[in-house]
Specification:
Layout lengths: L1 H6 L2 H21 L1 H22 L8 H17 L11 H8 L2 H14 L3 H28 L23 H21 L4 H21 L2 H17 L4 H21 L1 H16 L5 H15 L9 H5 L31 H29 L8 H14 L11 H16 L16
Helix pairs in contact: 2-3, 2-7, 2-17, 3-6, 4-5, 4-15, 6-17, 7-8, 7-9, 8-9, 8-10, 8-16, 8-17, 9-10, 9-11, 10-11, 10-16, 11-12, 13-15, 15-16, 16-17
Length: 433
Amino acid sequence: MNRVMRLLSPKFMRQIALLATLLVPLGLLHAFVLAEICIADTDILFLVESGRTRNFTWARQPWFIAALIWWGWLVLCTLPWPGVTTAGWVMGVVQALVIIRLLVFAAALQSWVLTTPAARRALWLALALSMLWIGLESWQQYFTGTNIFGNPRWSDGSLTGPFWKPRAGAAYGHLIIVAVLVPATALLTRPGRAWQIAGMGLMALAVATSILIGQRMGAAFTLFSLALAGLLLKPLRRATAIAFVTAALVLLATPLISPPTHAKLVNETATNMDHFSQSPYGELYTRATIMGLASPWHGWGYNGFREFCPQDRFGGGIPALHIPPTQIGLGACNLHPHNFYLQALTDAGFPGLALFIIMNLTWLAAAWRGIWRQRDALRVALFIGVATFVWPIASTDEYPTLYASGWFFLMLGLSLAVPYMKPNSTELETEHA
């Protein structure tokens, strides 16, 4: 009986939840089922503990309320109502319903799992090691032609890192600032020229890796992150300037050191921008916009874009903006519109888009709280990590599948927990992870 009581003790349950949380990055890298199981375990343990203590203060936070309202509206728009066309009963409704697991997961990290400095350091280390693993495997693939699993570059020339398809760029671009900013700041603020050179070298190497991976959005996220870091942390401004110069030099050198990267980042980007409306992304965005305008109040439900995009009525283009009709053959339809905000529009109409924007703003506000007063490197890095995900001008995966959103909710939970505001108290922890 005593052993059972120990197993059910709050301390043991939190340790199990922390272990599950630390396994989520491994799952996001190589086993999505593992990530899903660990997120579910953390949620269940957190809800059991909240019920045991009757402490649901976490559910009254502005960011959680905003997220809950957006989620509720999305579910309502996905349900099959009389006279309303939606993506269907089973798959769309189930996928919309289970989004709540990620919202609870972020609250669990903030309010329970990561309430100690040791727990926060452990999750930061797991994120940093994930970024390091992606970077190392990208370099291995660059030098040897294949990664550790024998996978070559992708057909478009981008490096896949430890994955079999081009997922390395986006994950690396989101993780880079969280992983690099803390050690780089520590090096740059130590006395001695050698330490400062090491800090600058670390940032330059990290940025060079992002460019060589050869995926546009990953490189864009990296440069965007660097710009924000330089603005918010004065000791990093010289290092970020050197990192930008390094990125430019590597890009200029790609015709010699990595022709496939040059073809992807320069040639293909120039072609797409010259005729953006007829590029694959332009075709997707046009089609999604027309779908949103065709059902402005409730959209088409979760998975609505996937189900209804091929219909001829959405292929007419936008004459007022001189955008020609879209063509399925040019990539006008896909599993999702490749932009979180356009997906919010097609899923749940303009009310859903407005609620989605409000939800993201509350997340940014919560992550920003206290940063201006105390420029802690970890907090700044996490705020930037959150900002790169909610940035609207981006090509993205489907929201909120774990490919990218799993990383986001890990960083969001950690950013909300640093520093952690204790329940029923306004006292902030003074010890940072």
